[in-house]
Design goal:
The chain is α/β, with parallel strands linked by helices. The chain contains 11 helices and 13 strands. The protein has helices at 57-62, 67-73, 117-125, 153-164, 166-172, 181-192, 196-222, 247-258, 293-302, 323-326, 338-356, and strands at residues 15-26, 32-43, 88-89, 100-106, 129-134, 141-142, 148-149, 234-235, 240-245, 262-268, 284-288, 307-312, 372-378. The relative contact order is 0.14. It holds the Pfam family PAF-AH_p_II.
């Protein structure tokens, strides 16, 4: 298979800076949450610096300690971290605009906040500030203070229990590749009422709380409560945007549902766990492979704002993150060229956020990619 020694050049004209921040807070379940976040942002010069390291080697090493990963791969290669990024650590914020809009990125369960580097860099290169968080228990990361956090056994057990649940297995066997709307919505309801779903949802709810906490902090940075390059430079007028892959897509939807500061969201090959009966009250886009419409149809059925469903053929689940470029295992990849897949995800993301956050005329419905079909656009207003 084709391998890459560098991520693609960003789509925009800005040089991309990246900085890391650590956070601590007490969550609603009284647990102490110790997070980290990588913030990608527009800059005017790389200041002669070398590009940022992609992932810390010690974080990559933790991957083999995860029960789910080791059980699935069992000695096989997964992905490489020996790749050149297109961002630079701790640059000055660009002076070209007074303020810059803000997005959040949520990686998939078991992943790392760096797994969205290509998309985050692309969006920062066109003028967005993008925040990618390392979430305790459900992701792996190294904090700025040097401490390592891996996926917990409880989270791994919950995901494994879902995959082995007899009810889930029975429903999965009945999922149609392109169901009609009513059939998909009913299948989704059947999945969401399985008892095992509550256990899986618990971690996503905490991730959503992490996002809201970091959003609080950004508002404080903008207000000048701490010294920061972002003081007075963040654009909150229309609202924040958020995008999540896989398990991170659940978090994305929950944040849109529960926090009025978020104007819109995107789920990449994600489901609807924890969202039964939920009105997201924000425009939402789902980009996925079949038969995933069976897993997320309830979102559009309940949402009072626009919900876009785009089905993408010839892709694998991990093609929606950096593994499209870093994979060393053909089993993890779909059939689409890596650059085509990157362009597809970035185009839909850019057009969606440009329209709903920057209020530009950009439209996701105007995009044309072979094998990408708009199943449905709904609004229950």
């Amino acid at each position: 298979m084709k391998t890459y020694d560098a991520f693609p050049e960003p789509i925009g004209s800005y040089t991309v800076g990246r900085t890391q921040m650590d956070f601590e807070y007490t969550a609603s379940d009284h647990s102490k949450r110790e997070l980290t976040a990588f913030v990608y942002y527009p800059s005017d010069s790389n200041e002669g610096k070398s590009t940022s390291t992609y992932m810390f080697p010690e974080v990559y090493d933790m991957l083999n300690e995860q029960p789910l990963i080791s059980a699935y791969l069992e000695g096989k290669g997964f992905f490489s971290i020996d790749i050149k990024t297109q961002c630079y650590d701790d640059l000055a914020l660009s002076g070209k605009e007074k303020r810059y809009p803000v997005l959040f990125y949520v990686c998939g369960g078991g992943g790392s906040p760096e797994w969205g580097t290509v998309l985050c860099t692309d969006m920062a290169s066109i003028g967005y500030v993008v925040v990618s968080i390392g979430h305790p228990n459900s992701t792996m990361y190294k904090r700025k203070d040097g401490r390592l956090f891996n996926v917990s056994e409880d989270f791994s057990d919950a995901i494994m229990a879902l995959s082995e649940d007899p009810g889930m297995q029975a429903l999965a066997g009945k999922m149609e590749m392109r169901p009609d709307d009513e059939t998909a919505a009913q299948m989704c309801r059947n999945v969401l009422t399985l008892p095992i779903i509550a256990r899986v949802t618990e971690y996503s709810e905490l991730q959503a709380e992490d996002v809201r906490t970091v959003a609080d902090y950004l508002y404080k940075l903008d207000a000048g409560e701490q010294n920061s390059i972002f003081e007075g430079r963040l654009l909150f007028d229309i609202g924040l945007g958020i995008i999540g892959h896989s398990y991170g897509g659940l978090t994305t939807a929950m944040v849109c549902r529960d926090d009025d500061r978020f104007a819109c969201g995107i789920g990449l090959d994600s489901g609807a766990f924890g969202l039964l009966g939920s009105d997201l009250k924000t425009p939402f886009l789902l980009l996925f492979r079949e038969p995933n419409y069976n897993m997320n149809a309830i979102i559009g059925a309940n949402n009072s704002m626009e919900t876009y469903y785009f089905s993408v053929d010839r892709v694998a689940h991990l093609d929606y993150c950096d593994i499209v470029f870093t994979s060393v295992n053909e089993e993890l990849r779909g059939e689409r060229d890596a650059m085509e897949m990157r362009n597809l995800v970035t185009d839909y993301t850019k057009n969606f956020f440009d329209h709903y956050i920057l209020q530009k005329a950009a439209s996701v419905e105007s995009l044309a990619y072979d094998g990408v079909d708009l199943i449905k656009k709904t609004s229950n207003k």
